[in-house]
Amino acid sequence: MRSEYHDRLDVRPAMVTADVIGLFKRSLGYLWPVRRLFAARAGLMVLIYALGLPLPWFLKILIDHGVMQEPIPPGGEGLLYPFFLVPFLDSASGMDPLAVTLYALIVLAVVFLFVGYSGNTSLEANLAEGADVATRSENRISAGVSAAHGLVGLVDLCLAIRLSQRITDHVRIDLFSRMSRQPLTSLNLQRSGDAIFRVLHDAPSVAGICYALTLSPLGMVVSVGANLWILAGVYGGVAPELVWIGLSAVFLTLVATSPLARWARRVSQASRASGSATTDEVEEGLKNVAAVQSLGGAERQRERFAVASRESFRQSLLLVWVVNVVEWIAEHVHLVFATAGFWVIFSGIVRGDLTLGDAPVVIRMYSLLYETAMQFGRIWIDQQDNAAAARRVYFSMDHKAELATTSGPGTPLPALDPVSLRFDGVGFRYPDGRRALADVSFEARAGQTLAIVGPSGAGKTTLAQMIPAFLRPTEGRLTLNGADIADLDTAALRRGVAYVFQEHQLLTDTVAANLRIAKPDATIAEMESACRLAGALDFVRAMPDGLDTTIGRGGGTLSTGQKQRLSIARGLLRGAPILILDEPTAALDPETERVLLDTLSETGRDRLTIVIAHRLSTIERADRIVFLDQGRLVETGTPDELMTKDDGAYRRFVEMQVG
Fold first, then answer.
1. Stretch (H or E) spanning 155
2. What pLDDT score was predicted for residue 2?
3. DSSP assignments along 355-416, one per residue
4. DSSP 469
5. Which of 144, 375, 383, 435 is surrounded by the fewest CB atoms within 10 Å?
C-alpha cells in the first residue's frame, strides 16, 4: 500500500480469486438476520416477472388482430401464442378489430397500473451522484431497483431500499463495535479518518454483494428461463437461432470481461484508500487547527490536503476509466449479438414464417434475453469494487479485535471487597518491538493511595493501562484478588476500574451526558456530589444551563483545569473499587489540588487509588510509591522511607525538582 494513503495496519490489500470468493461467502451471512424481508422481496420479484410475461403478446394482438384485422379463431387455434394467452383469445374470438383493440388496451392499462412494462423498465431510488467512491456509497445505503413500475413496483422498491438499509445497518454496527474494541496499540496506529471512511463508505458494499449474488441472479434466471421457455415453445420451430444467440451472449461477455477483474479490484482499492487519506487530512487538520495556526503551519497543512485530494480525484478517474472499458466491451458484445438476432427476426417476417405482430414480441423478449445475459456476464467484474470495499470492512472487523479474555470463556469478576492487586514479573513489549516494562513485581491493596513515579518514558502509563486490560502483559502475571486478569471477563473487569486519562476524553455534549458515561442512571444529586468532590461544582453551576450545558468539541469551551476536574468527577461518579488517575493535578492550582487530594484521601478508605504523577505535592500524599525507570521497578516504599536512601532514585528525583 502506498505510504501517502496513511495505512499503517492495512498494508497488504492485494486479493486473489479465492479471497474474493471467501468475502462473498462471508457477506451472504448478513442475509440471515433479514431473511423474512429477503424472502418477501424474492417472492415479489418472481411475481413481477410472471406478470410481465403476457405484455408483449398484447402488442402482437393489437398489430395482428387490430391493425391488420386478422380474425381470432376459438382458442387462438393455429396462431403463435403461449398457453397463458388462450383464455383471452377465447374471450376475444368473434370480436371485430376495434373491439379487440379496445379490449387489449383495457387489459394492458390494468396491468400497467400494477407493474408498468414489467421487466423492460426499472424504477430506481438512486439520487444524483458523482464518480467518487464516497458519494456513490451514499446511494448504496438506500439503493433500490425494481423491474416494475406501478403499485407493485413501488412496493418492491420500498422492500429493496429497506433490505439494503437493514443489511448496511448490521454491517456498520458490527464494524463499529469491533473497531471500538481494538487494543490501544492498534487504535493509536491508524488514523480516525480512515475508520470513518470504512464505516460510512465501505460498509454499504456488503449489501451490494448480497443483492448481486442472490436477488439479481434470481431475477436473471427467472427472466431468462421464462423467455427461453416461451421462445422455445412458441418459436422453436420457426427461429431456434434466437435461443442460441442469447446463450452465447452470456458466455462471451464472461470471457471478454473476466481478465479485467484483478485490475478492477486493484484500482477500486486504491480509490478507496486515497479517499480515506483525504478524510484523514480533513480530520487531522481540523482537530489540530489550534496547533497548526499557532505554529504557522496552515499553508503546509493546506498543501498536504491538496495533494491527498488530487490523488483521490486521480484514482476516482482511473476507476471510472476501468468501468467504462468494461462497459465498452459489453456493449460491443451486445452489438454483435443484437445484429444477429435482428437478422433472424426480420428475415423470418420477410419469409412469412413470422407475422408483423411477432416483431415487437420477439424484439422485446430478445432484448430482455440479451440485457439479462449481459448483466449476468458482468456480475463478476462489477462486484470487484464491492469486493475491495468489503475486504476493508472485514479487515477492520478481524484486526486483533479485543476479546472478552485472552483464552476461553471469561471468568466472573471476583468480589472486590477489599481489593488486592498484584504484579508478578510483569513485562510488556509493543508490537513494533519496543520494550516498555520488564520484570515488575509489587502489590497494592484497598485503602491505599499508590503513586506511580518516574521520569518521562519510564513506563508509568503502560503499567496503569494493564489494570483495566487496555494493554495485556507480554510476560508475567497480573492478578486481581487472586484471579489472573487475562482470564477475567473484560467488560466485568472494567466495571471495577475507573480510569481518568491524562488526555481529557470529553464528548461534544452536555455536562450531564459526559458524566453519565461513567454511570448512565446517575441522578442529579449524584452528579453534583461527584462534581463537588472534584472541585467542579462551582463552574458547572455557573454555566448557562448547569449540568445541561453543552460543551464544545472535546471540551473546547472549558479551560484545561475545568476539563481535568470534570474528568475526575466522572471517575469518582463511577464508584469503582479501583480509581486510576493519570496526572490528575497537572493543570490545577495549589488550592484546588489540596482540596482534591483531601477528598481522595477521605473517600478512599475502601478504594485502591492509583495516581501517576510528577508533582511532589501530589506524590507526597501517597501511602506508597512505585518508582519506575526505563521500564523497571527501581524502588518501592512510603515517601518517608524512600527519602532516607542517600543515593535512592526517588530522592534524586525529589532533589532535582526542589533544587
1. helix 150-180
2. 46
3. -TTHHHHHHHHHHHHHHHHHHHHHHHHHHHHHHHHHHHHHHHHHSSPPPSSSSSSPBPPPP-
4. T
5. 435
- The grid coordinates of residue 586 equal 497537572
Residue 145: phi, psi to the nearest 5? -135, 130
Task: Collapse the DSSP code of 124 into the 3-class scheme (helix H, G, I; strand E, B; otherwise coil) and give the result.
Answer: strand
Sorted by sequence, the CB contacts under 8 Å of residue 366 that are 6+ apart come out as: 242, 245, 246, 341, 345
State how far the Cα of 468 lies from the Cα of 491, in Å rounded to an integer.
9
Helices 298-351 and 261-287, axial angle in degrees (round to 10) = 150
R_g of the chain, CA atoms, integer Å? 35
Distance CA 161, CA 566 (A): 44
Give the pLDDT band of residue 293 (cuts 50, 70, 90).
low
Tell me which residue of 539, 568, 565, 563 sits closest to 553, measured CA to CA.
Answer: 563
Main-chain dihedrals φ then ψ at residue 48, nearest 5 degrees = -60, -45
Residue 120 pLDDT more than 60? no
Task: Quote the cell numbers at residue 262.
Answer: 484483478
Question: For 351-376, what is the mean pLDDT?
Answer: 72
Q: Is the peptide bond before 412 cis (omega within 30 degrees of 0)?
A: no
Question: What phi and psi, each to the nearest 5 degrees, are found at residue 441?
Answer: -140, 125
SS3 content of the chain, % helix, strand, coil (to 5): 60, 10, 30
Q: What confidence score (pLDDT) does residue 635 get?
A: 92
Pick from 484, 454, 446: nearest CA to 467? 484
H/E run at residue 261: helix 261-287
- Helix spans in 29-83 (H): 35-52, 55-61
What does the pLDDT look like over 122-133, one tens digit per residue?
656 565 555 555
The model's confidence at residue 596, banded by pLDDT at 50, 70 and 90, is confident
Local structure of 307: helix, strand or coil: helix
Given a contact cutoff of 8 angstroms between Cβ atoms, the answer to whether 617 and 590 are in contact is yes
Q: What does residue 624 show for φ and ψ, rounded to 5 degrees?
A: -150, 150
pLDDT band for 1, please (50, 70, 90 cuts): very low
Alpha helices in 484-637 (DSSP H): 490-495, 511-515, 524-533, 537-541, 560-574, 590-603, 616-619
Task: Looking at mean pLDDT, say which of 6-10, 50-54, 171-175, 653-657 comes out highest.
Answer: 171-175
User: φ and ψ at 454, to 5 degrees?
Assistant: 160, 170
Cell numbers for 659: 533544587
In this prediction, residue 437 carries a pLDDT of: 92
Interatomic CA distance for residues 285 and 305, integer angstroms: 8
